[in-house]
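Figure 2 data, in text form.
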Amino acid sequence: MVERFYRSLHSGRSHYIDSANTNWDIVVPFYLMSYRATPNTTTGFSPYYLLHGREMALPNSDNLKAKLPEEKENFDQNCRLENLKSSLQLAYKTVKKANRQSHLNNKRLYDRKAKLRSFQLEDIVYLYNPARKPGKCFKLHKFWTGPFKITAKLSDLNYEIA
């Protein structure tokens, strides 16, 4: 999720950076404000709404008009809190349902290409290890190590190798 957010941050930020790439640190807060105010495609709610229970007040031309004092009665604080509580409960319930549906869709897409592999004792296998030591060049990293011999079957998916 962090990598996905970083990709969004990088692509969004790239639209506002000047040609010399010197103002990137200035535009990050503006990008983050727009990201927090934009509704998520899965949940339908903006991150700001889910945190605060209301939409973010964005600067626009309406804010520049002269403000006239309005005569309003004192707004009942308990009524406001109940409205906020009920709207947040509805939003959280909707988000939970959308996340569950998204998870099922992702699982279905993953399972289309997933292959069940089965090994026997004494089979020779290679181990996929994408982790690399800090300071080592990523381009020269060997992802597969081995060969190893299977010494025990721990479950349908886990094996012991030596």
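Caption note: The chain has two domains: 2-56+77-113, 124-161.
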